[in-house]
Amino acid sequence: MKTHRRTVMxxxxxxxxxxxxxxxxIPADAVRVAALVEIAAAAAAxxxxxxxLRHLDPDLIAPHVSDRVDLRAVLGRGRWLPTxxxxxxxxxxxxxxxxxxxxxRPVRPVRRRVVRRAGSPGxxxxxxxxxxxG
Length: 134
What we know:
The chain is mainly alpha-helical. It contains five helices and no strands.
């Protein structure tokens, strides 16, 4: 399981490096925090989207993250607290073993079929009731 966590950290390292660059290079605190919030919000929104679309169980994701509290907060099932501050170390660089994360059996997405009828719903009855006198 530790190998998976290292692989996840290496995959996340470009994003962490970008966030650390914003943290260390922007002099204005308000702008720095706003930029970091934007980065975090975008990443959290993408994570929630994948979990929702792929019907992932957060308990299966938890062993791959460094802090389960962050996982719950990102997925919207927890709360951010003022005490949730911690040091984010500089990411390691190096090759990423993606084969360790890919499931042995490919996951097939659920296909939904939508049946559409010609015309707008409800409009036919409005025009059928009107009579034209001439």
